[in-house]
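Q: What does the assembly look like in three dimensions?
Context provided by user:
Components: two
Sequences:
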Amino acid sequence: MQRDQQAYDRGVTVFSPDGRLYQVEYAREAVKRGSPTVGVRTAESVVLATLGRTRSPLMEADSIEKLHDLDGRLGVASAGHVADARRLVDYGRQYAQRERLRYGEAPDAEVVATAIADFIQETTQTGGTRPFGTALLVGGVTESGPQLYQIDPSGTPDGWRAAAIGDGSEAIRSYLEDEHESGLDSDAGVSLALRALASDLDQEVDAEELDLAVLDGDGFDAFDRERTADAMADAGVGPAS
Amino acid sequence: MRDPDFGPPSGGHGRERPTEGRSGIDRRTEFRPQVSAGEAADAPTFETGTTVVALTAGDGAVMAADRKASLGGRFTSNKNAEKILGVHPTAAMAISGSVGPAQSVAETLRAEASLYEARRGESMSMTALSQTAGQLLRGMPVVPLLGGVDDEGGHVYELDGGGSVMEDAYAAGGSGMQLAYGVLERRYDGVADLADATEAAVDAVAAASERDTASGNGVTVATISDEGVAMEAADVADASALEPVEESAGANGEVA
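A: Here is the predicted structure of the complete assembly.
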């Protein structure tokens, strides 16, 4: 009995005496093991950049999914368990279409981020579940202007001007805190995102491992390898520098 | 009355399971139109009466429809009905039958096409789109035409509430279909360019508008190429009077 009472980290729905949900905190640790992901909001767009390292030279780099188009105008980047992220991305995609069916209007990033967060929050209060081991950045430009939201494994959606999740996120965030300024244009936003991402890496980044997308009034624009390499050269990041 | 919250199959929050549709035999699509055939049969409904035509024209397709909505074909309830609805970046549906279910099917198909594109990174082929449309239509009092363009060129499909999907080079539908076919049989030459096809389509609607009591009030034309769907309309069924129009909701459900 004594042992059971102390196993506050066994069930996700059980608080420890000092008010902590250990499973949620462990899920945050899983996020920290994920590869770094950065989001930057600019005056006219939202930039998402993420690193997807291949585990073997045999692996197809393009098959690593880390940036996702939600509905043509909103995008999601993830850090942590990829499988968990995929489930949340599909939830977001369906939610975005259901909103259109219901209201004849497309939802903005805040609405979808809140819906995904509500879905995540349920797993922290429902018996038999485990929290999602992933954090997401949800962004896009709608009638509400450029929006960037971060969702953590507890199911909290927060708006950010620039955000980092995954490995080294604390260092990257402090880099962004120093470097981010309001009124950036999209190109400056791409540069900042790439420099922030590279600021905490000891190895060189290859364009193949980098996923980059700009979301603006025209929608989700994923960069191919060549454009990514050009953007890296412009930012002074990677082998081209 | 249906609570709008329970319209789509898994309309609630949180507890739904998006993967269900892939394994279950009942749900072949993620979304289901919000009106059932039973409800539509009991309630008073606007019917489109209607003449709709669709023609393939080389690498494109042209669709045309009249603009009259009527109650039982006896009273004109709307003189500015939008009967051609964009459902995909390069496809549109021309509706005949009950308006409510038809709009619901078109909106649901638009959601399916957009979800497909988000998931797979490319837009639906016309084969996939027509198949999905057929499944959404089963049991619905709607008899639409579907026209669109994919890698293989222009396509036209006749659909009905039984779920049938039949491809053809050209087709007509609605209460004015015999009159429209009379024009199309003479005018469709199989290699029609877009301008000739547009003229034939408008003339088919014009002929039907003259003699079918449930068709009239001008014409709407959708010209579909691999670039997208361009809508035009005129108060009279005459190709030279056509003016570009913005559809109220675009192919992705976006309201501008």
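Follow-up: Chain A has one domain: 20-55+64-235.
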